[in-house]
Amino acid sequence: MTTMVERTTTPPPLQGPTAKEKKYDRQLRLWAAGGQQALEDAKVLLLNSGPGVVGVETLKNLILPGVGNYTIVDEVDVTEKDLGVNFFLEESSLGKSRAEESCKYLQELNLEVNGNAIQKSTESFVEKPSVLDNYTLIILIGPTKDCSILEKISQHAQKSSIPLFYVHCVGFFSHFSVQLPAQFPIVDTHPDPASTQDLRLLNPWPELLIFAREKTGNLPFQRDHEHGHVPYLLLLLHYLNVWKAARDGKAPANYSNKKEFAAMVAEGARKNNAEGGEENFDEATANVLKSLNPPSISSGLKEVFESDDCRNLRKGSANFWIIAHAINKFHAAHNGLLPLPGALPDMKAQSSDYIQLQNIYKAKAHSDFAEVTATVRRSEKDLDIESPIDDKEIEAFCKGAQFVKLIRGRPIRIAKSTETLDWSDRAGALSMELENQKMMGLESLLPIYFAFLALDRHHDETSRLEQSRREPSPLKEIPGARDVSGAVLPVPNFAEAAHFYTPAVDPETEPKPWPRFDTPEARKTFDNVVKELDRADGAELHNISALTGGMVAQEVIKVITKQYVPVDNTCVFDGIASKTAVFNI
Amino acid sequence: METMVNGIEHSRERWRYLDYFLNKPGPTSDPEWLPGEQTINSLETSKVLVIGAGGLGCEILKNLALSGFKDIHVIDMDTIDVSNLNRQFLFREADVGKSKAECAAAFVEKRVKGVKITPFNGKIQDKDEDYYMQFKMIICGLDSIEARRWINATLVGMVDTENPESLKPLIDGGTEGFKGQSRVILPTMNSCIECQLDMHTPRAAVPLCTLATIPRQPAHCIEWAHIIAWEEHRKDDILDTDDPEHITWLYQKALARAQEFNIPGVTYSMTQGVVKNIIPAIASTNAIIAASCCNEAFKIATSCNPWLQNYMMYSGDDGVYTYTFETEQKEDCPVCGNLAKSLTVNPNMTLQEFIDSLGERAEAQLMKPTLRTEEKSLYSQFPASLREQTAPNLEKRLSELVENGEEIGISDPAFAIAFKYKLIFSS
């Protein structure tokens, strides 16, 4: 009955880490070789503007870990004030292209990375938006000169499924929105190890039961040493049998049942020893609550299963959906069970018992994986797919099925001065956010996002007014540009203008153009943020740029490696209160 | 406006962005605050100390220099290793082996004109109170809890209620993978690092008997090679975890043991990780935490906006999540509190067992403790004569040595001060 691990007869050849593995050691421990490869294959585009520090700081954090390729598009030449805020410039940079100079000093950080600089405005660079197809990810620094540029980039990125980050960083505040492709699935989400245990104790399989019987059949007669080393999960299986035998075969179902069950397990420990108890029994009682749950699936996986792409595979279906489909079939065929992940936590046990138990779990995980693979292969055949999905991809999905995540990318909101944003689909959720924070006695950070939208809108408006001055055109085309006398109106200052961009709640209007924003708290936060942004007058504070550059880089890495879970989809940072918040806009 | 700083003339035009915040109040800045020349002057004359020139330290130096600080000191005892280059962006391959403090200081001084950065290549424990007294505040980017506790205890000890200048704000950052935290400590005024010690639980050590007799995990085999096999076979060599030959030897021993017990999974990289207790580290997380610390330093130095009260934790594993809150100062904090901290102990445990447990208990974490009651010495690590004299106590039960509720003093060579604990017997 012993399952032996294959023994290596000769020790493996000793190879120390390569130079690259040494340099990247601290990050490979997070995203491994696969993540690193994805990073090295990436081509990141920075469309820079304003003081431009947050973009450069973001790139720094991508170049150091070895992103493959970066391109900086920036229109301006370096001026004196750049040297007080941007670390990747020198005295000698004054008067030269800011794109080229910051590209040069960033490049020094990692010679394996390929850097490019283009001295152009974002506007002229994206004249033909197809130029964006040369990149795998875009970072756009806002506000753009006017909203049509943002709109053009956003629409093209959607069409080409290129992830787009839209970033603002002004004074003590920052914001970024992530526009992911319409479907962005992540399998390797790196859940907390403590939450990943699926030991299937309520649904044991024959091999596990046989081993449990072998190790617990004569429990009362075992010698102390043996008794104190029975792996806790075999103890739980044993006592489950005892429990069920007295209760019509029913396992402990609710909290009080489980408490009673835990007490019964604890009762079995021998206490007539120096320690006054047994560690394996302590482990068993401590694990009752979390190990005896009927199978269930996470809301993320449920969403995947219920999606039409999962139910109805078609010729062009992504690998993710073909595997999800197979796992859904497994789930249905096995009364709600998912493929066994196969990992076993450490527990008090004799070495050989533990290894044997580990092998039982591994073997079961492998046979579940084989069953899923068979379904995948059938689908491939039905769909006439020629290149089969790699076993490793299927295996990774089986191991992490409970924690897979599907993010549905949404377009970035564009605050045009000539239109009213329609919040009908989000107004409810955002009003709820304000209410919830208020109930907890907290200030929602949502107004920060709206202040940045107001800033975009202000830029759009200013650009429109300026244009009207350059090329006088019929009044009616540019409302508000001139008063009746024909005199050019002054460009309103942001703080004054923002007041009118704020959500004026009109109870007559349904759907409301902005989310309900009439709580005095939200209004006060909004006004303060606007005043603070006005104080900054477009300036970046290096610390806030560095911090935001760190956050954006983390998210970019998660999107590129398809590991961990990226922000869905808007994040703000408040550098006065030292707080962040994430909203699904 | 032309000004002279550190002998270099420069125009305020360079600091135009910064000046928006130094010359104008904002809606949340203190109404009493006077923006303008006075504030700029106080920022430029604030002498600040950075402890650590590693992942956080490199970022901190850059950030402070670009926040308008002109007089910065930095301490680090380490030299540059190739595995630092994925995040410690002031260092290049040619710098491997050089002093981190010196290299980092020279780089930032060269890049940001007018800032003076004074490096010290050594340990924080080499410096005394007079040294720390010269700074306006201290910013820590450390990877060791022990060093944090040392500087914390030193700064708390320096506070003289008669002299407001003796209170040195301590801003501390730490990271692990995609996570980190920053905190602002005003010694004796709010919760200190020692008050918060139990928020950072040490990793539980694997019992020696598991390593010796019933290994189950690859890490158990590596720890066995590290703790037992090395002592047995290479007693006379001092283990150097940076020496590839030493790591290779441990790896091979661990691998052989793993094969003996059929344990899969021992690798070179894992051996290195376990033996050196490697914590994953990336540039972006360091950027976030270092910038958060420097943002607080800037606000404290200029009063241009309120600062953090007093702890922000950041987690980037699943989206972005921060929790910003005020940790409570503890009355029974062994460093800044007045009361002895209660430790619940089993009266039947021996003094030796109690000493061993001090290393692992989240609220103590003391490795080489010397213990005494008000009347007598219970156990003394140094000098050797006193150690011999007190060694017989190690076998005695706690109940034979102290009364229930008795206060004991514990000192440890890693810290400048003694900790007060009150032993409560469990029933």
Plain-language structure description:
The complex is a heterodimer of chains A (585) and B (427). By secondary structure, chain A is α/β, with parallel strands linked by helices. Among the domains of chain A are: 19-186 and 543-583, 3-Layer(aba) Sandwich (Rossmann fold); 201-291, no CATH class; 299-407, no CATH class. Chain A is 46% helix and 9% strand. In chain A, a hairpin with a 4-residue loop joins strand 9 (570-574) and strand 10. In chain A, helix 8 (206-216) packs across helix 10, helix 10 (232-245) crosses helix 12 and helix 11 (255-267) runs antiparallel to helix 12. Chain B is an alpha/beta fold and 427 residues long. Chain B has 3 domains: 2-177 and 281-308, NAD(P)-binding Rossmann-like Domain (Rossmann fold), CATH 3.40.50; 208-275, Arc Repressor Mutant, subunit A; 341-425, Roll (Structural Genomics Hypothetical 15.5 Kd Protein In mrcA-pckA Intergenic Region, Chain A), CATH 3.10.290.20. Helix content of chain B is 34%, strand content 18%. In chain B, helix 6 links the parallel strand 6 (137-141) and strand 7 (170-176). In chain B, helix 9 (244-260) packs across helix 10 (268-275). Chain B starts with a strand and ends with a strand. Classes of the chains: A alpha/beta (585), B alpha/beta (427). At the A-B interface, helix 1, helix 2, helix 3, helix 4 and helix 17 of A face helix 1, helix 3, helix 9, helix 10 and helix 11 of B. Chain B: Keywords: ATP-binding, Ligase, Nucleotide-binding, Ubl conjugation pathway. Chain B: Belongs to the ubiquitin-activating E1 family. UBA3 subfamily.
